[in-house]
Amino acid sequence: MRANVNLWWILCAFFGLVAITYTLWNIIANPDLPWFNATEWVGSVALLFLVAMSALIAFYASRVERAQGGVLPEDSLTADIDDGDPELGEFSPWSWWPIVLAASAAVFMIGMAVGTFMIPIGVAIFVVAIVGWVYEYYRGYFAR
What we know:
Layout: H1 2-29, H2 35-38, H3 41-67, H4 97-113, H5 119-134
Helix pairs in contact: 1-3, 4-5
């Protein structure tokens, strides 16, 4: 985890250096304009947002690392597979409902882009997919 934190801080510094270089390069490339007109604001602001987001992730990762109270098995080079938490949840590897749900999202987005008549079709497929996915353990071979 410490390596991840360091990598994010390095990325934050790199993006800051690139933002400064990018802004100064635009100002130097246009010496006949005042600095506020010579600056290409979209790229400069986007790079500054990259700095802010990298710092946010680095800060969060450092807080999580400090709060976990030690090295996790995932971070230890001498850990075995059994050292981690064995409970990962209950998954249905045979389920087709996530594919139907993704198809409903695709139909909905195509409806927003192409024609609004497809939006209710996407919503109807979504309702069927959600109900099917929630109740898949109540029917068929896997009923409980």
